[in-house]
Every structure is written in C-alpha cells, then in structure tokens.
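Just curious: can you write a single protein's sequence together with how it folds?
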Amino acid sequence: MVMNTKPRLFESIGVIGTGKMGTALIKGLLKEKLVKPDQIIAYDISNEYLMALVEETNINAALNNQQVVEQSNIVFICVKPQVFETTLQKLQTAFTRDHLVISIAAGVPLATIERLTGNARCIRIMPNMPFQIGEGAAGYSLGTRNDNRDSEIVEIVFGSLGKVFHFPEYLLDAVTGLSGTGPAYVFVFIEALADGGVLAGLPRREALILSAQTVMGAAKLLLEQNVHPGVLKDAIMSPGGTTASALQLMEARGFRSILIDAVEAATKKSQYLGQNTLSYSDHLV
C-alpha cells in the first residue's frame, strides 16, 4: 500500500482580505489538501466577496480582522499595500509571539510589517496568481524573529503550490516585477498569439486553445529539460524557415526590450508602493 506522505498543516489559518490573491491562496490551500476548510477563518471588508467564498469553500467567516487574529496561528495579510498600515494599526495589540504573520502586500517592507504586528514572527512573500492551481512562483524573505518552523511552513505552503525561493529582502521588488505580475504579461501574449491565429484564418476558440497550450507546453519543456531557452529556440528554428522569419520580425519590433522594460517598470512600482502607503479606497490585492 502506498502511504500518503504529502505534507499538510495542522495550524489554524487566518486570512485578512479575500480579494483575488486572498481567494487564490485559500483555494490553493484547499485544492492541495494542505488544510481542511474548518482550519481557515477569513475576513474581508466586502461582505459580498467573503460570503461568496464561504459558500463555495465552507471556510469560516470572521466578524472582523480582530477575530481572525485571535483565532489563528498563521495569519496571511492579503490587502493592498495602500491600506496595509491602516488595516494593521488597529490589530497591533492582538498579535503575539505565537503568531506567524505572512504578508503578500507588494512593496511593504519587513520593517513595517514587524512594527505593525507587535511581537509576531513575520515573513514577506510575493506569490503569483497561478498558485491557485498548484503552478505558482514565489519569493520570500524572513524577518528578524523567525524560527526554523516558519521557513518550513512557507516551503510547505508555497512549495506545494508551485516554486518558492528564499531571497534577501532587497530582491523581492524584482520578484514582484518578474513573477508576481508576470502572468499578466503572459495572458496578453496568449491573447495576441490567438489574435494572430484568427488573422491567419483559424476559428477563435481553437486559436485561443492552441495559443494557451503552446505556452504551457513550452514552459514545461523548458523546466523539464533544464536548458537555456536559446537551446530550445534553436532546435525549432531551421535555416530560412518560418520560425526564423517570425523571430526576425519580433527582434526588429523590440519584443525582448518591451518585456525587459515591463519587468523594470513593475519593479520600480513595487519599490514606490513600499515607500508610499497612502490609503486608497480599493483594498484587495
């Protein structure tokens, strides 16, 4: 008989903010069976978001953020950086040394997280949306009060939901610019690739599926073969062929430079958000 050695968490989990990223986190935890629904308690300022998620997943709904902290061992902070400080200021006295706080707020430094969470052990992480299907990518940094179990928890959660890497904190803005916002770049690429297929005569539905499958297959091939992408590119590109013509056009139009500039722009924005925690009305990551 094959034993199930898949890791799981036995700690109680709290989630503050059930917008896109908070919801993705909860669904990912449940999908990978890292926790049971009754281990999770969540709160969101939008009761509509919260109740829809509770109905779908059977997790527990809190009456406020204070209740989330009081009933959890691990607290995920999934609010936008613009309201991070105002959200946690009211909770500072609720956190204790027994709490592990994991923040996914882009740009908010560990010094700020630790200042606003009393004696709690803190981790800053930048995941991305695909971790809700177990194919995410994340980078994290530890605070000044963490123990070995904290690192293990992060590796269990985000390692089960994709790839996770430990970085010094100064590199997390770059992680945000590359993998944190990267899925959006890929979605635009898939859509544009499908548009090209439609222009060439393919039906829209089939063109979109071909485009998405091509991107997924290429990414898996690269990861499995563990070679430089140029090696695989060269394997496809025959002399005077269709691939060579297409790539020549992409190079002429600055395709590489556009992607490099996009990552740089997102990285700088993450740095800016970390320095300017103004309270805007939107609150979900």
